[in-house]
Amino acid sequence: MNIFFLSYAFLIGQVNLDMARFVTPDSQKGFRKTRCEIYIGFPYNVLFYQTSDKLSVDKTAKLSAKFKIKVTVKTDSDKVVAKEEWEKVSYIESLTKASSHNANILEQLDILLDPGNYKIETVIVQDSSLPTDKAGKWDVAREIEIRKPDTALSLSDIQLSSSIDTFSADSRFVKNGLNIIPLPQRIIGTPYKSLYSYVEIYNLTPKNNYEVKYSILNDSGVLVAEMPPKSLKAEIPNLTEIECINIEKITSGNYVLMMEVNQNNKKIVRRKAFIVKQQPEQLKEQPIAGNEDMEYLSFIKYIATSEELATYNKLSDTGKQKFVIEFWKKRSKEERVGFIERVKYADKNYSSWNEKGRYSDMGRILIKYGKQDDQERFPPDATYHSIEKWSYYSNGGMVFIFVDIRDIGRYELYYSSIKEVNSKPTYRQYIPEELLE
Prior knowledge:
Elements: E1 3-11, E2 16-23, E3 34-43, E4 50-51, E5 63-75, E6 80-92, H1 95-100, E7 103-113, E8 116-126, E9 137-146, E10 154-155, E11 159-166, E12 174-175, E13 178-182, E14 187-189, E15 194-202, E16 209-218, E17 223-226, E18 230-233, E19 239-246, E20 253-263, E21 266-277, H2 291-297, H3 306-313, H4 317-329, H5 333-350, H6 361-369, E22 374-378, E23 387-392, E24 398-403, E25 412-416, H7 427-430
Parallel strand pairs: 14-21
Antiparallel strand pairs: 1-7, 2-3, 3-7, 4-5, 5-6, 5-8, 8-9, 10-15, 11-13, 11-15, 12-13, 15-19, 16-17, 16-18, 16-20, 20-21, 22-23, 23-24, 24-25
Helix pairs in contact: 5-6
């Protein structure tokens, strides 16, 4: 049995373990194993940190903590079918900074399993060389059923994620060319405003259309949000499906994400429970002149008038700071907070290796007009590159269509339905006519 180990430091909320099952490429050719991905998250403060001479390549890291991860896989008859152990070291700059950022350690394991019922036991052990009062041991176990891969239309489990973007050479969480950061605690909310999901669809009928629909139910089964269905054309039998769902308007509580795929009158449904934890409204307020906030609030080029920008550009650095403060004093606190969050979201989700997301076309539209009411993604085919369509229902309705013209995950604005934002002259060459209707 092959178990592969990936490690990454990320910001999450509590210790947890989550899993998702995916069909391996050979499964539909008679190979009966399924790839089970295990996502483990635990907070840095369960470990004891001390200074060390041998630190990471990150020169700011001054403290380290050694720990081990032990994984045992057993059948329902308690037979051990896999047992692995890894020695790891966590590095942080300081306990204070780690605490202020809610720093956690994120791990991922990949296991190939035959059909059957299993129990996966994971144990985290603090360095045994430490004094007894500093050492520690934490364990978690989950049961999972592995079924024989289906030859008809089927789906993988839903993998929840805090972020999905294009492949990065230094990423440890790449799958099918996507960098998918796991969310083992399944909690979303502050500081994240979007819930991402990744699903693999198997055994589609090529050249036929299929429909994908997402909805969110509360813990009583009542529908609280529903995304417009997406009608797509299956170019190949096996495809990936990703979705970004804005949860800003969903109150704190327990929910279920439901995904439906329908083709040739056959419907397959997958569900995944998650938790929304929104920050209390009074904690969202940002001081106008705070150092961090000023960096975002100073980025007014998309929302200021041409006269305001002309005045701003003539000022000294001190004058520009005063201008920005006065600019935002004329607007409500809600507007300031919303603007900061949009710039942060753009930087987090649309940045590339050489450019912050706020300067991208998607970042520009998001910052100027806010979060779109409808977001549709269209995968590439023999004629067109990947396309993403944003629709706004307010202000008389607006549509913006972006094209990944270079096939590198960087979408450029090709079509705008409003005269204030220019379309590219060649947009009809890259966008199907039906999307322009």
